[in-house]
Amino acid sequence: MKIILVEDDRTTAALLWDTLTDHRYAVDLARDGQLALELLMQWNYALILLDVLIPKMDGISLCRQLSSQFKLFVVQC
Q: Which one GO biological process term can you cite for this protein (predicted)?
């Protein structure tokens, strides 16, 4: 399963990265919304872990843009 992790906080990103890769998931990391969008247009991800407060394009705007182009199932916490 290929996952994209969109998180700008280094500590949180490292914790999530370590946990996911320890469970043998393939993980790409984007530290801002613009890079995340570029990666999402290039690759097919099974799961997007998306922070709301990220630079260049906030998580809500990114989610809206993606949902206008793709069928998404959104779970919020």
A: regulation of DNA-templated transcription
What is the tally of structural domains in the chain? 1
Phi, psi of 19 (to 5 degrees): -65, -45
Sheet architecture: strand order including 26-30:
26-30, 2-6, 47-50
The per-residue pLDDT for 77 is 61
- Give the separation between CA 27 and CA 55, rounded to whole angstroms: 20
Closest among 77, 46, 49 to 63, alpha carbons compared: 49
13-57 pLDDT, tens digit each? 999 999 999 999 999 999 999 999 999 999 999 999 999 999 999
Q: Is residue 76 part of a domain?
A: no
Q: Is 8 helix (H, G, I), strand (E, B) or coil?
A: coil
